[in-house]
User: What shape does this take?
Amino acid sequence: MTLPLPFSRPPADERVTYSADEILTTDPGLEPLIANGVRCHGGFDPTGTYRSPRILHRAPAIRAWQGRLAAEGASLVTISRELLPPQYPNVAQAKLLLQGGVREPIVRALTMIAIVEGFGAIIRDVRVPDLRALVREPIDGTALAHLERGLFEAHARDEAGHRSEGGHKQMWEAARDLALENPRVPPDVLMRVMGGGGRPSERRRSFPQLDETLEGMLSTMANVLVIEVFAAGTFDWGDRLLSDPEVSAEPERAGAMVRCIRGDETPHVEYLRTALSEIRARTLITVAGGTIPGRSVVDALLHRTLGVLTTSRPKEQRAETRASVAEAMKRAGSPGRLLEEFDALETPLAPPTRTGFEPSSGAAGHAA
Amino acid sequence: MKLATRLRRSARIARAGVTLWLIYKVPDYLRRALGLPTPARRERTHERAARVMLRTALDLRGVVIKVCQVMATRSDVFPPAFVGVLKQLHDAVPPQPFERIGAAVERELGKPLHAVFSEFERVPLASASLAQVHRARLRDGRAVAVKVQYPDIEEIVRTDLENIRRGCQIYERLDPQPLELLPLLMELTSHLALELDFRREADSADRVREIFRDDPTVVVPKIHREWSTSRVLTMELVDGIKVTDLDALRRAGLDPSDVVQELMRIFVRMILAAGFFQADPHPGNLFVRPNRQIVLMDFGLSKELPEGFGLGLFELMFSMMTLNEAAMIRAFRELGFATKTGDPAPFLEIARRMMRRSDTGRFEGEFTEEMTDELFEAVRENPVVKVPSDFVLVGRAFSLLSGIAHTLGHRANVLAAMGART
Assistant: This one.
């Protein structure tokens, strides 16, 4: 993965310690981003360039932590974009639906993206253990030391919005409403977001020898990192679809909104991969007082998450989405051939045979 | 119902009405006569008035208990001291003698008890304002719970509602700044009509069971329709631990925090996602089984929410959690909140008050008891705001759930309940 600016290589003398307030600070003097009447976070600098929120110190901080990691000879974990499952429905299928008057599945999909982005706020509830007691090597001046000192909170605020500023939830809603002219939201959207029945399955412990809170935190971070990386596919899809004047009422503004969100996600991917790489380069202390290489823990957690998100999950999602598309076509009185055309445009799902984080591989994906 | 009984009930209600009037007005007249200032808070007066209501309810039972129970849930209208006293009525309804109940079952089913049941316990499992529940066994051996409407309750409801309506009309004419009680009474009248039809309750139970058809962790007792009528409801007997029995939960190896989170997930799914919910989640209606299944009981007060309500409520909760004032105001409007003058300022005031509250405690991601109570209190102190009745019922349900969470010593994370995962 190529790191976009401002995350390129740092000078060696950059600061590595920040306060939470600094991590949460947005550039001053930005012209506010107003989307479909809703004030959103971030804004435009005097050159008219969009600046993400809360990156005044967060961006150089991440750059410095990555520089430090490189100076220590450690690599950054990288999830290959080749692992991304193809979007379903893809852009051609989505266009076919919109042009065929079957808008409901696309409105539902965009609304679900917005809600799930908003749910990202739950990262502020992740419990962070006393890492200094659970990691053998020092963690001062690392991303790890800043997870509770602003990084999780900044991530939560970016996703769900904070106070008077909308976040990605509101920005996706604005993009949807601009492009599709304030469509009626299907009433079943929350039922679909909440998914099938039953209480959420309990997290399976892979490393019972580790402190449970530590394993929980690392597992969540691995999950969120994979989701954030895979979101690139959603951004491509959203940008191309909502920027298309054949189906979008406001192609420029709606597409620009998706690109703003995409830019905001960069710090999320970068701090998560930095912190996980820091763990990977260190040694974890077990409950019994023994040790375990951080690398084996991080790689196993990423391998497990990638395994689910590249194989079973996309299959289930395809089946559910196709069923709802077929229902929506029926309700809209579409001719039977529309579903055939829809199926013919599908991008085949080809689950990868390897994740790059196989426990025996000895390699952490691809070193950046 | 005999004329004498009807007159006695009318007289008792009239006496309570006059006593309430005197409790509030005599001190006002005296203060004015002596030139004394009006006190800012009148907690003791409210408490005395509530005790008069409580005594009247326990004496007359039936609909008067129901009225008081409803008042105890309306912290947006009535002062906290009033609500605090009347809350007692949720757990303190004495049962009726078995002879009357047994005869009512036989009349409804058209058969002697022994022709339908091989066992029928004389002491009820529970008694409420309109009905009581007995444990029994069908002749084929299946254990059941039989909910029996009190004889004459329909006529009592009619008479009492009429008396209360007249009392409210007189009060609104005499008081220069009356509380708007008649709309509340109309709401109660419509709820009572629904609650008195047990066939509807059976339909509601089936509907909630359908919402959780793919969820083996939620149990809704099956209804035996062949032994049910509009006044008798025979249902599968499902055992479980009362949701607030902390010791029993722990003895069964259950984690109270897990129970709290599960309850929130179940009600969030009904209210926000399905748009149909059991609107009376007090502890007597919720049980936990040792295998962690949650049992939902009593669907007399179930409610269908209008389309879009769930999304509107989701937005309100979300905006509260993210402290977004503008989004809160939008959500209030989408949910049907209105101001009598059309002026949006009261919404702004309520939103700011919620924001201030959140500054003093953790409010992000967690659903708190204070969230509902504070909202209702803010609304009560801004009488210019009209609250949609659907919201009141939903707010009450969340408030009851929060009360359970408080008893169990845990709080629910509402984002996690909606499906967000850490």
Notes: Chain B is about 55% helix and 10% strand.
